[in-house]
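To whoever is on call:

I kicked off a structure prediction for a single chain this morning and the downstream step that reads the tokens threw a length-mismatch warning. I double-checked the sequence; it's 119 residues and nothing unusual in it as far as I can see. Pasting both halves so you can look.
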Amino acid sequence: MFLPPALVMEQPAKPTEAQKIETIIKVLETLKDAQFIRNGSVYNATEAGAHLRMKWKYAGRSVKTAPDFIRLCGSASSMSGKPYLVRYKDGHEVKASDFLWTELKKLDEKKEDEKGPKS
């Protein structure tokens, strides 16, 4: 049976690395009642997103992939070397790099699920 091109289901486009980076930053930015700890100072989630985008911009061509972004921009202060932290409303903290890796893994798994079963 022939289906006209308009009726053929297309596979969703694989996100670019820049789209993956932007998505994990947005997830961080939308954390409700969470704080971002950088060099001992506390910032809200929106400020955290702005800071990470600024670092990404300055990293330039050094960041080719989402893992590069996490490693080079989202893990620690380039000034002090101290790890960035995410502090949740209940007070527990996780390294920002762990948070970002988890979100990237979820994103990659979601994209795999959207492909459907393998034939």
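Update from on-call: the warning came from a stale cache, not from the record. Cleared it. Sanity check on the structure: Residues 15-106 form one domain.
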